[in-house]
Design brief:
binds flavin mononucleotide, 319 residues, Rossmann fold
Amino acid sequence: MADRAAQDVQGWGDPEDPIVLLIGAPESLFADWRRSVRALVEAGRRVVVAPAASEDEAAALRRLLTDLPSRPALICSQAGLPTVIPALQVTGPALASGLVVVTSDPPSHADAEARPELAALDLPLLTAARRDDPDQAEAENAAILGFLERQAPREALHYLAGSDPRTLRDALGCFATGVTVVTTRDQTGQPVGLTANSFSSVSLDPPLILFCLARSSTNVESFRQAEHFAINVLHIGQQPTSGVFARSGDRFQDVAWETWDTGVPILSGALASFECATDRIVEAGDHLVIIGRVTRARFEPRRDPLLYFRGKYRRLHFS
Ligand SMILES: Cc1cc2nc3c(=O)[nH]c(=O)nc-3n(C[C@H](O)[C@H](O)[C@H](O)COP(=O)(O)O)c2cc1C
């Protein structure tokens, strides 16, 4: 994951992204530093570790802050404050966009007085027992990310009609979805299916749901002709199934499936399965919108869903 930002600076993430500067070793700042750095990078931050200086540390930090291409947010421990405070004195807000201090004690009055005039977040240092708790580590990340979004908001990206489709795809990828496998039979009766996250509920009365099928799909004709199809919502353990149904090959070979009333394949053990009669198909650009009337459904709500967000599989985190 690491890449070198400059010869003497360790950093992660896209050099174009807003910088978060760590004052001190990452493991001294976070409960699970690899996970925290990854969370920052995935949230669009460039994470850089300030190199240790042999001479006057505050002066070295001040020089680094002046040299960086953009105003960073700083994360330091209480022990780092004696370096950070003089480095930011007087022109603090001009050199940094915000300061996160990982503290074992609430800041003393004198300590708070000495702080530069800069938006600051005091974050309790997690005790050894709480460090291993993923919920605590996640809460720590959420607090830092929330602070950074307020203090150093990332510049929003734009798509305009006619711009490159990749940017539109990235914009659409900001909508988190579940993952489904849609199935039917082809004209010869063979089971067919593919991974799709374009599933949506449409109407309760009548009960309608939809998914969108790329016209480029090898299964376009099968779904166009099918009187029935099924949508299987995947649970967290079915990520491999999602992979299989997004690649070419015999997709049904290693997956358990059954049939209900209409003969379309129903994946056994899915989080939810909806058997549908094709209600209508709407031609829409490079996709078909396939709307089905639900005739039967089965669901197992105690399982966690498989999620998809910004081009990656994710898992639901209850906090
Ligand atoms: C998470 C995920 C979601 C997808 N969603 C859709 C979708 O909604 N519609 C679609 O046509 N393809 C979607 N795809 C792509 C198809 O699964 C993939 O192109 C598949 O190989 C198509 O197979 P086929 O051409 O045999 O139908 C998705 C793929 C993944 C990994």
